[in-house]
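Form 7-S
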Amino acid sequence: MKRTEMISRLEDNKGEWDIIIVGGGATGVGIAIDAASRGYQVLLLEQSDFAKGTSSRSTKLIHGGVRYLQQGNVSLVLEALEERGLLLENAPHLVHNLLFVVPNYDWWEGPFYGIGLKLYDVLAGKRGFGASKNLSKEKTIKHIPTVEKKGLRGGVIYHDGQFDDSRLVINMAQTAAEQGGTLLNYFKVIDLIKKDGQTCGVITRDEESEKEYELKAKVVINATGVFSDAIRKMDFNDARPLVKPSQGIHIVLDKSFLPGDSAIMVPHTDDGRVLFAIPWHDKVLVGTTDTAVDRSDLEPLAQEEEIDFVITHAARYLTKDPTRADVLSVFAGLRPLISGEDAMETAALSRDHSLSISRSGLVTIAGGKWTTYRKMAQDTVKQAAMIAHLESRECVTKNLHIHGYHKHSERFGDLALYGSDAPQIQDLFREKKEYSEKLAPEFSTSAGEVVWAVRHEMARTVEDFLSRRTRCLLLNARASVEAAPVVADLMAKELGMGKKWKKEQVREYEELARGYIVS
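Output:
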């Protein structure tokens, strides 16, 4: 997947696209896979990098949603559990089973959560990841050695899925491209084209060359998540808000806070949310919060109160109490919740997805959750095809392997996340000795991965590589800053850029990383 080739595909098409998708997160790229695999002529445009927004800032879980079961939203849980199973089958190099422990400190918690999680197992059916069961105090401690032992009565274990979110989006984009789709990052849609009151295309600008394009389409799909209303206002300036963003943050700690392979799930925090402490990339991820925000930013920042909230709750359940000095990185993400006129709290808003069609025929898909991206895409393409009067074709994504598919990618060690691409990266390491050298002592990432990301994964900036092609920024923000000059140098050679570009890239990255460092 090369950006120059994608631009050539764009410019070679002198006619009308079947579908133009605006937005390069999980939802938009999922739609691109679905539509392209049905044989439609598809173009996706992303204003920044793939997964720049919400899709790279999740809790890294592919799950049915225990919280939604508590709320009685059984249909959403059923759908998510089905999709969870399909993702494990289609992307086993990125999705795996993770054992969770719910520690119990009151007499009623064991039977209460035990029964609820048995229902979770039943709803998963044949796609279940493993059976839940009650644990004694001793076995709870064996699974979670650092769990707070004062007042501990026991625990309940259950199984769910874990993944690397931005890596999956990149592999999904490669899948869509292999199916014939055209996908471009750093292409911003600046207006919609209309004819006789109907949306029939977009005006877009290549943010690198500043060249503008007028592109025609039989239907345009708005899949921009928390930015959905901005596109809808291009359609009709008086469009009522559809999305209300909610912010959630995560902190990253050293592995010593949660040794072992099991995660902790706290079913009820002070604000009514579920709290997770999860082993991830040899670190510990703790979150999340639920904070209403007034605006949607490409680079949201964690609020001081949110950081303190997560640290305080983590300390309640861990014998080793984290402090602000222990936080290796903090990152914030926005949820595209469907707005309700009477809903005053974001916790009350819907995670179900919503399809809306404007008077001009603009299709907007909003809401939903990461786990159900494939089903959201299926529903959206079906509706868009009807509006565009496209030939009806069956969805084939249930059994479509995601790029990188490999059943035993663990054999590739540090390159396991690349799946079937790993042998080619190993070949790349053999080209030059320096390609196998690590970027920094804190990371397992090698220099050759930078070269691979530029050549095959459309990485265009230092941030693209350190934040989304790898997860260095999220795992240790300070250490990633130290690696930035090396990354800039490697990328400049591949992209044909000079000293000025390198200097600017390092400066921009340092400024960005400051928002991930807790002082």
